[in-house]
Amino acid sequence: MTFRLDMTMMFAMHDALRRELERIARITARTDDDPRRVLRTAAGWELFKTFLRVHHTSEDVALWPVMRHELASRPDGLALLEAMEAEHAAIDPLLAGVDAALADRDHGGEILGGLVDALVTGLSGHLRHEETEGLALIDASLDDRQWLHFAEIHRERIGGEVPRYLPWLLDGADARTTALILDRLPAPVRTAYHDEWRAAYTDLNLYP
After folding, report:
1. In Å, how far are 9, 114, 147, 180 from 184, measured between CA atoms?
2. What is the pLDDT of residue 144?
3. Which end of the chain is more exposed for a tag (fewer CB within 10 A), N or C?
């Protein structure tokens, strides 16, 4: 589908979240080590939670309320918007549940797999729903100014995490997506990404 608004960052974020879900699911399925030990100390798990929450709270604050106003006379659009919001609301309890299982040395191992499966299913389903229906509704509802405002709120919430966020976002991204994102950034940011940030991200050893 062709969009009027620039959805490059939205699709890149979705791809990054799916990538991390796959990594987390693989770790949880391991039998050669305790997945709780790996995830409990994993920088990758912390980055995943941080950037997922930034993305969702930015939508909750700067996207859905604007759309609710624009869709006031469209019951079908409002129903889809409410579904998006409900899917968001289901994710945080799953993240908290996984964290609780990681901290529970007695019984956490018994429930971790089920919680991660629910997280993978719930978040993957939400991303798919957003891509198949939600983005088209966004594209039809918002003007360029409103869309740029959402992007600005997202950037503000990333804040000082940019040196880790950018290489995390582009981890495994194809050359076209990487170029599209980097080319719109100021030259000093591109230089820092290539000369410092990418190597520092690699050194994090995301899932030891």
Report:
1. 11, 41, 16, 7
2. 96
3. N
Instruction: Give the residue among 24, 206, 11 at the shortest CA–CA distance from 117.
Output: 24
CA separation for the pair 27, 35 (Å, rounded): 6
Q: Which CATH number fits domain 8-159: 1.20.120.520, 3.20.20.30, 2.60.40.1500, 3.40.50.300?
A: 1.20.120.520
**How many other CB atoms sit within 10 Å of the CB of residue 170?**
20
Which of 131, 156, 91, 170 lies closest to 10 in space, CA to CA?
A: 131
- Please give the radius of gyration of the chain, using alpha carbons only, rounded to the nearest integer: 18
Q: Which of 5-9, 26-30, 144-148 has the lowest mean pLDDT?
A: 26-30
- Using a 10 angstrom Cβ sphere, with 0-12 exposed, 13-18 middle and 19 or more buried, the burial of residue 111 is middle
pLDDT of residue 66: 95
Kindly report, residue by residue over 86-105, the tens digit of the pLDDT.
999 999 999 999 999 999 88
pTM recorded for the entire structure:
0.95
With cut-offs at 50, 70 and 90, classify the pLDDT of residue 106. Answer: confident
What is the amino acid identity at position 170?
L
